[in-house]
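debug: dumping io for the single-chain case to check the tokenizer round-trip. Nothing else runs in this session.
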Amino acid sequence: MLIQNKDCYMMGQKLHFDLKSNVDHSDLDYDFFINRARNDSKLIDEIKRLREAKEELRNFESEIDSHLPKSQKLKEFREFSKNLIENEEGLNRGSASSTRTKDEEERLR
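debug: decoded output
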């Protein structure tokens, strides 16, 4: 419900008032104001920590190549391991039958 602005006179002169319909009572409550300020300060601290974490992540991502082995070394190791598994005798399926004895071969047939 809004208060109506009626003609008010003081000492014979008309007074004009702009009535405020939405009064923010939180500004009038001291405890609420202090708690809101504390919450805002905590929020500011959290935002600051988040910004620092983002900066650390950006720095790490920019220097990630220095933390990882060189790609050429990775390629060489990949080729070496592939050749070792596929081409080394004793490690592929074709050479598995040569490790069996003649009796084992006959029993498997």
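debug: round-trip ok. The radius of gyration is 41 Å.
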